[in-house]
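Many introductory courses stop at the sequence. We go one step further.
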Amino acid sequence: MPPSFQMIPPRAQPAAPIASPKLSRPTRLLITTALSLSLWYGLVQGTALGYAQLRDLLDAPAEAAPGQASRAPAPARSPATRAARPDADALRQEYIRRLNAIDPVVTATVLAPDAAASRGDAPSGGAVPGSVGRPAEAMPAPAVDTEGDAEGGTTRDIVLGMLQEFGLVSSRSGGSLSDNQLDGIVGGQAAPDGLAAASGAATEDEPDPQLDALNRVLVEGGGLLLPPWTVELQPEGRYSYKGANGLLITQQNGQNSVMAHSADITKYEAAITGRMGLPWHSQVELRVPYTHVSEESSVGASNSDSSSSHGLGDIEVGLSHQLLRESGWIPDMIGEIRYRAPTGDDNFGNDALPVGSGFHGVTGRVTFVKSLDPVVFLGSAGYTANFEDTKEGFKIDPGDSLELGINAILAAGPRVSLRTGFGLAFTSEAKVDGDKVSGSDRTEGVLNVGGAVVLPGKNLLDLGVGVGVTEDAPDVAVRLALTHRF
């Protein structure tokens, strides 16, 4: 007998085992689900509240000028940028001073021709008698009527010319600015990128809204479809681990012994997914995985065993369609049908680990999307029908699955998004030749957190972590994906 084994001598009259209270499986699942949902709700509410407070501090709007209370707020700017830009009065005074230094006659003619003509101070040619030759300092700066736009547009022309000289408005498109846009610019209310957009000049680094991190993650999660003929290619890697440790009582030579027992299953999966948008609000998707599975088990300190398998996994193809559009409290609804082919080796009849399910499967899923700025909620419900097949002379039905999930995605910025969610999957008992296999049903609950960031070149880097909260779920799972849009 190895010295690491501790022998327990047999007893003449074994004591009766003491029964320990144990919760039923549905009760444990209910308690675990309630705790997980409470944790998820707290994370979402805390993240949303913190983001809202931070946004209020950074994007506090400036006090509205008189007469502008009813105007819609312009895009927010950082405090440093707002403080560095001169206001309308300062720009106007600088422009008047520069004109005075050039020619007082021109200044009087350009700034207030209508007022000068009405007082009889200027002849029909627009010159002011007695002003030629006087020093610029001796002539007071004429008053500029900020309400002159309604009469002759004089102040508007001055401000446009002033903005053009400062390089804030393009000289070719400055005349097309509306009064609201002009007021926002001279008041220092528009962001520098917004100025070029308001003046008709396209910005090279302005991101496409369809390439925002939030929209890209929604496409991955099945809550948004690609535009027609738009293609995405997504290589990804997944890692999952599931372990079990306990004590094992064995009998050797008529004597019982207690030894430590452990079993660890590690799974690596590399997959590539292709998506393409179709007309009529539809999308097609193809996923091809390659899987490596390893298992290590040990009994005691000197008895251990390990095995591994790798190969092509089950190929999946899916078709999605937009069923409803969000309107008021009605969410978006997207339907999906997915087929799974048993291309992976199931290894029935041998001791190798399976890399595929070994059965054909069809999944129907409905996803609901509701946006409550800055958070988007996704709820999904799916049912997978696994078809019966003959394996080694036995008719085996692996059982169907019901999947439920809820996720919340926070738009932390145009290039960053954060998410959290919870998913449950219930699989019914398997059948062999029509007879149910007791204990073959599974309940998998996983709490997910993750984030995504948009990289240059229409790329999206996505990282997600899942933690199992039920006995049948993996202890931990990590996913890393890089999506490129063509």
